[in-house]
Specification:
mainly beta; CDGSH iron-sulfur domain-containing protein; 2Fe-2S; FeS-contain_CDGSH-typ; about 15% strand; globular; MitoNEET_CISD; 3-stranded antiparallel β-sheet; metal-binding; about 80 residues; single chain; Ribosomal Protein L9, domain 1; 3 strands
């Protein structure tokens, strides 16, 4: 990748969600995350990795379990 091919950075108020192949969803920006009861889940970083494989020990966050449990995504 050259300097001319760099991906533009989102604005501070923009929210993006990117699916990592065979891994988590990367959430960037000021999105609010809530649990199944509608309670806020505290965030301590601007970018967080959300589990898609269902095997994490620290939901909703990814702990890398997808690397050992054979999770495969379509994207």
């Amino acid at each position: 990748m050259t300097a001319h091919d760099e991906v533009p950075r989102p604005h501070d108020d923009e929210v993006t969600l990117a699916a990592c192949p065979d891994g988590p969803l990367l959430l960037r920006g000021p999105a609010r995350i809530v649990d199944d009861r509608g309670r806020d889940v505290p965030r301590h970083r601007a970018t967080v990795a959300l589990c898609r494989c269902g095997g994490t020990a620290i939901p909703p966050w990814c702990d890398g379990t997808h690397k050992v449990n054979g999770y495969r995504s379509e994207t």
